[in-house]
Amino acid sequence: MTDPADTPTTIDGGPREGALIASRRPVSPAAPPTRRWRNWAGNQSCRAQVLRPTGEPELRRIVADAAAAGHAVRAVGTGHSFSDVALSDAVLVDLSELGRILSIDPESSTVVVQAGARLHDVFEALWTRGLAFTNLGDVDVQSIAGATQTGTHGTGRRFGNLSSAIVAMRLIDGTGEVHDIDAVSEPELFAAARVGLGALGVVSTVTLQVSPAFNLHAVHEPRRVDEVLEGFDELVGDHDHFELFWVPGTGWAVTKQHRRNHDRPSPRRTWERLAHDELCDNVLFGLANRVGRSRPRLGGALARKIPSPGRQEYNDRSYRVFASPRRVRFVEMEYAVPIEATVTALQRVRGLVDRLGYPVSFPVEVRTSAADDITLSTASGRDTGWIAVHMYRGVAHEEYFRGVEAIMADLDGRPHWGKLHFRTAADLARSYPGWDDFQELRARLDPHGVFRNAGLDRVLGPIRATARRA
Length: 470
Ligand SMILES: Cc1cc2nc3c(=O)[nH]c(=O)nc-3n(C[C@H](O)[C@H](O)[C@H](O)COP(=O)(O)OP(=O)(O)OC[C@H]3O[C@@H](n4cnc5c(N)ncnc54)[C@H](O)[C@@H]3O)c2cc1C
Description:
This protein is of the alpha+beta class and 470 residues long. Among the domains are: 97-212, Uridine Diphospho-n-acetylenolpyruvylglucosamine Reductase, domain 3 (2-Layer Sandwich), CATH 3.30.465.10; 215-422, 3-Layer(aba) Sandwich (Vanillyl-alcohol Oxidase, Chain A, domain 3), CATH 3.40.462.10. 31% of the residues lie in helices and 26% in strands. The strands form four sheets. An eight-stranded antiparallel beta sheet has the order 16-13-15-14-18-19-17-20. Strands 1-2-3-5-4 form a five-stranded mixed beta sheet, with helices on one face. Strands 6-7-11-9-10 form a five-stranded antiparallel beta sheet. A hairpin with a 4-residue loop joins β6 and β7. The protein is globular and about 60 Å long. The model is unreliable at 1-29 (pLDDT under 50).
């Protein structure tokens, strides 16, 4: 199962995701040349030495050397974050060569993987051993460490984000020291490091709790958005995994209901899958957005003319239902609000979109997650509703996203760490009861600021001086 967005093809004539698109002179004769690196969406780039360690000793050496030389180091997964969280102006450690699945234990339903392993590779290997990820987001191409460091999530009120499935991890801190972390050996660090934004160290391996393999019975259908919102609590409560996509400029939403089961699969026929996932969701939608970049109203109208497949119902392996290909490149903001505020949040976003005065071609996505006990997880301590807004890449998005952010901040929203937002440490601190605990750990684990970058300086603030001296 390979998402072609994951393969080295050029989309829209633009650079490849995580692509190294140019090189320039070395920093020093002994050092590898610096290269330009870009994220999947193409909205973030940096110039850095890109190192690809092939083993943990090399990874440790990279961190220790950088600390000694006073260089910054950022680890990078597949560059699927929209924010500047992964950027480095010195050393970028690309974990793609550390992508092996180290062991799978069907008895305890756990899997140990290297940090750079990709979700789809792990899912396929798990399936052959009768196991599956308990939940997943809507794409499966990210690296395990990258996805978990930002708290990547799917939907389902009873199910936590991917980070909450971590039961142990190995982390290399800012001095090169290795920490084997779990809930017993280093509970405070375990609470923080599962969503660490790469600020506490470079993750080397991760042990995940997974589930016995299961299928998902999917019902996808267009419905009146007002009816869906009226029955939102029941829909969320009655389905293992429920999400909705409100189509701006219309009174319609597409709902996706997924029920876990072990019944016989009845997958979509190939032509049905291709017609919907490829032709409508990618080819035609991409075309409408390309037109919309120069002629927004026409693009918006075209996007709404894409034929709806109507009701779809099928039953398939869970990993095939959770994730689908995303070839149309966009930028995204996603906010986590207390679950009780989800409907209010969407209603306010609908009002905002109506007032914007220009069309928004991407649906607004609404999901839910269970609370967890991870210090800076966006679902820390509270069941969560998610509101995600998107814009085609290259189209002005700031007014829209700032408007959405004002709505979400008013509802005590927390921004997804891997997606766009404009918040700073000063006001984010209020949203997280464990904020100071995280900062103290950060000062202890990264006393020289090896893992800092401009993005972390903005969202986490400087590393605390008192602890740095300690
Ligand atoms: C098309 C698309 C669909 C998406 N769908 C969802 C979704 O359904 N749900 C959701 O929640 N999010 C979603 N996202 C966001 C995405 O899951 C997150 O941004 C995720 O962090 C990206 O993983 P990555 O491997 O690309 O990591 P990167 O973006 O490369 O890095 C993310 C962070 O992890 C750190 N990091 C990476 N590797 C390590 C390591 N070994 N040790 C320490 N830190 C490390 C980086 O420094 C950075 O801070 C989506 C993004 C895209 C582009």
